[in-house]
Amino acid sequence: MLTRREYLALTAQAGAALALPASVFAQGGVITRPIPKTGEQLPIVGLGSSATFSQIAGAADVEGIRSVFSAMLDNGGTVFDTAPGYGASEEVAARAVNEAGLRDRVFWATKLNVAGRGASADPARAREQVETSFKRLGRDKIDLIQVHNVADMATQFPILEEFKQAGRVRYIGTTTTFKPQYTALEQLMRDEPFDFIGIDYAVDNLGAEERILPLAQERGIGVLVYLPFGRTRLWDRVEGHAVPEWAAELGATTWAQFFLKFAASHPAVTVVTPATSKPHHMIDNLTAAKGRLPDEAERRRMIDFIAALPA
After folding, report:
1. pTM
2. For residue 224, which phi and psi values (nearest 5 degrees)?
């Protein structure tokens, strides 16, 4: 347990870290950001496991999954975000990293949700789901578990607090990618001891900037960004359009780098976690974590450029 003096020291370090440009903490060429509660550094681009990742996991393509992890880890990434609700993603990913001996190199973030839409969670089933995540990964401690989509927080979040207090989970929080849940999330961020939240955010989806991201900064809560490509929405919008030449000043030469540099450049964001099933896409994504991030004027230019394209 931290002493008060140690806690204050860590808080000061985290506060100082947030006040400095992310590039100050570039390690091995990859930009990192501190987790606000501890100052632990994480690469600003990671790997999600919905969408196409979930599809190849569903096909039990362990080798394909392993190749994506290798591409991430070999190029400076560490953060992997998954959930028992993403089909076979958690199970197959855990098998892949274990067989490849990569398990202990991954910052493993998963989720808890045994509550149906609007329904109550069974505490026994919730604990069983968490234990299943431990069994799959084969580690004594999981880095981050979040309640998925703020589902029955009254039942499920205290269970995560128990696991954290027992030293089995390092960080806890909740997620949502549904704007109607933002008000509930905002209140929870004020009331609960979250280490992290997960939220949707993209160059054409700025709703989280209004209250959620500023509140995360105020409360010292880490942020995982989901859907930085708007699922396929942004890809559809830029189809047939070249990346603007001025984006090269940021080190962005592909649309993936453009979108990810934007999302990662908000000072409240800790890690952006786009899903992919292709190693070369993983490498492209991590290239967005190199060089520098856009400043406020450049962010505005990026927003305006995308907004001017036909929807």
Report:
1. 0.90
2. -95, 130
Cα–Cα distance, 33 to 48 (Å, whole number): 18
- Tokens 């900037």 map to which residue? 209
Q: What is the pLDDT of residues 41-56, one digit of tens each?
A: 999 999 999 888 999 9
∠ CA 30-304-222, rounded to 5°: 40
The more confidently predicted of residues 20 and 180 is 180
- Identify which has the larger pLDDT, 16 or 73: 73
Alpha carbon distance 285, 124 (integer Å): 39
pLDDT tens digit sequence for 288-300: 999 999 999 999 9
Q: Domain locations in the chain?
A: 22-308
Average pLDDT, rounded, for the chain: 91
The CATH code of the domain at 22-308 is 3.20.20.100
Phi and psi at residue 211, in whole multiples of 5°?
A: -135, -35
Characterise 196 by phi-psi region: left (phi > 0), alpha (psi -120 to 50), beta (else).
beta
| Among the listed residues 211, 228, 226, 232, the one whose alpha carbon sits nearest the alpha carbon of residue 302 | 228
Choose among 176, 310, 292: nearest CA to 236.
Answer: 310
Contacts of 271 (CB under 8 A, 6+ apart): 33, 42, 43, 44, 45, 46, 79, 222, 223, 224, 225, 264
